[in-house]
Write a structure and sequence with these properties.
14 helices; DNA-binding; alpha/beta; five-stranded parallel β-sheet; two-stranded antiparallel sheet
Length: 333
DNA sequence: CATCCACGGGAATCAGCGGTAG
DNA sequence: CTACCGCTGATTCCCGTGGATG
């Protein structure tokens, strides 16, 4: 049933992209100067999740690498690396300048200084999910680096700009914007069809079932592919040679929840207890939440530590923190 | 206005790990 | 082999800030 699992993985970047030529061309144009060893303009890719922003950014960079001998690139997902330190560290990592950098002993802007010393070939940086970055000042720092070109990716322009100070707003006001819309049903179907051809056995899935997957994904290619992957896995485990309508229906919920499920599994027992309590209770004040937590586990952590856990879980979008100070409540997402 | 409660930054402390000198 | 050292990530302690609340 499954011939090549890689093409169903979320991080897979196809050799050819479908239905996104205008966007690819816009981005290629902004990166054009790099062909001549000059920096490109900053670009900002906007649109809902699963609309192909990350895929197109990576794809375009790959094509660029094929045409330029001397170039450095790095992809950073700010959802995972959300501190200033982590982002700078990842960038230095890409240009091999991390030697003897230690988390503790490194003076405040040692990392930035190192990056400033960088005098290699043009360096193109993709910052995905920039709105998750807690200290946006890195953007300003990067903006001023002569040989660094940044490609920013975010969901909504409004949300991003509301988190920036005036200095950054005016800088980014002029950058190249490329907007992505949700994929219409027929485009999703053809994307899924291509993945099925590459990754699955012949005739493993029909047009009709593909349409069902696409419909359940509501324009989100990532969800669509996740559903297809789960359907293929199920069919495989059941020893079938085709993905039937029933299999697709069964795969829809787990396809949708997969990302969250993976994150939940990474939680420590203490964090998991907090998450479970919120799942059961719905919405709680910090005080009540802590009391229940302290009752449930042996050897509870301190309130301060629990606050760290909760803010991390907020980052990972497992819980929602609403209100400030005394009005604060937590609820599961 | 005093008090309460929660947030979150920063320093101090702890515990585990790997390397190494004796 | 063992004791010790240096490093790191996790946790805790301490505390300033700020919006309710009475």
């Amino acid at each position: 049933m499954i011939r090549d699992a890689r093409v169903l993985q979320p991080q897979f970047i196809p050799d050819e992209v479908e239905h996104r030529n205008p966007e690819v061309n816009r981005l290629s144009d902004t990166l054009q100067p790099i062909m001549d060893g000059r920096p490109g303009e900053t670009s900002l890719l906007l649109g809902p999740s699963g609309a192909g922003k990350t895929c197109i950014a990576k794809y375009t960079l790959e094509r660029l690498r094929e045409n330029v001998l001397d170039i450095n690139t790095q992809y950073v997902n700010c959802w995972q690396d959300y501190t200033r330190f982590q982002v700078l560290y990842r960038l230095l990592d890409a240009v091999d300048r991390t030697v003897d950098v230690h988390r503790r002993s490194t003076p405040k802007d040692e990392l930035l200084d190192r990056l400033r010393e960088y005098d290699g070939p043009q360096f193109v940086v993709i910052l995905d999910e920039v709105d998750q970055l807690e200290d946006k000042s890195v953007l300003y720092d990067l903006y001023r680096m002569p040989s660094i070109t940044t490609v920013l990716i975010a969901n909504r322009e409004q949300e991003l700009f509301s988190q920036l100070d005036d200095r950054l707003t005016s800088r980014l006001q002029t950058c190249v914007r490329i907007s992505f819309d949700k994929y219409p049903l027929d485009e999703l179907v053809s994307i899924l069809g291509a993945r099925a051809r590459w990754g699955l056995a012949e005739d493993a899935i029909d047009e009709q079932e593909l349409a069902l997957v696409a419909d359940a994904a509501a324009g989100d290619a990532r969800v669509a592919i996740s559903i297809l992957r789960n359907a293929a896995r199920r069919a495989d485990q059941d020893g079938r040679d085709r993905i039937t309508t029933d299999v697709v229906r069964a795969a829809v919920p787990e396809g949708r929840d997969e990302v969250r499920q993976k994150t939940v599994e990474q939680l420590t027992p203490h964090q998991r207890a907090l998450y479970d309590i919120l799942q059961e209770a719905g919405e709680l004040s910090p005080g009540d939440l802590y009391d229940r937590y302290a009752e449930r586990v042996d050897d509870p952590k301190t309130r301060r530590t629990v606050r760290n856990y909760l803010s991390k879980m907020d980052h990972y979008r497992l819980v929602v923190a609403e209100g400030k100070n005394r009005a604060r409540t937590y609820r599961p997402r």
